[in-house]
Amino acid sequence: MLPVLPPDLQPEAYLVVGLAHCFWKEETGLRELELIEPIPSAALETLLQGVPTSYSHLVATTLAQVETTATQRFPSAQLCPDFWERAIAAARTYRHRPQATQHLPLGAERNDLNFSLERKRVLNSRRTVRDSDNIRQHPHTHQQL
């Protein structure tokens, strides 16, 4: 359901969403999750340049239609956490960079991305920083400007 939009955005505002393949770490291993995530304009341009990504599909839509479009095209996926906040923020990026909307016309879908699960996006992973992770620097290696 479309939330109340800020005054600088209209329901017809352009937006791209992607189908992200993520993972959740459990005691028995990794469980794959399909999430629908808003894609800001700069990220869209990067994805279209062929960088490896966890996104398998992209769809161009509007804020008013995003939930319907995404659930119809990706019925097994769920909306990502903070979906509407991220969607509003992403829609603003297209408003400020309208040339980015030319990469994917409204209603179009792209599935020719460099999709890869080699580097898995684990959503609940925690990094433990240890003292041995610190890089030791010799005091005489710093140059004064």
Question: How many DSSP H or I helices?
Answer: 3
Residues in helices, as a percent range: 10-25%
- Strand segment count: 5
Instruction: Estimate what percentage of residues fall within beta strands.
Output: 15-25%
Number of domains: 1
Shape: globular
Structural class computed from helices and strand pairing: alpha+beta
Distance between the termini: 57 Å
Q: Kindly provide the radius of gyration, computed on alpha-carbon positions and rounded to a whole number of angstroms.
A: 19 Å
Unreliable residue stretches: none
Main sheet characteristics: 5 strands, mixed
Strand sequence of the main sheet, in spatial order?
A: 4-2-1-3-5
Order of helices and strands: EEHEHEHE
Mean model confidence by pLDDT: 87
Structure commentary:
By secondary structure, the protein is an alpha+beta fold. It contains three helices and five strands; from the N terminus they run ββαβαβαβ. A five-stranded mixed sheet has the order 4-2-1-3-5.
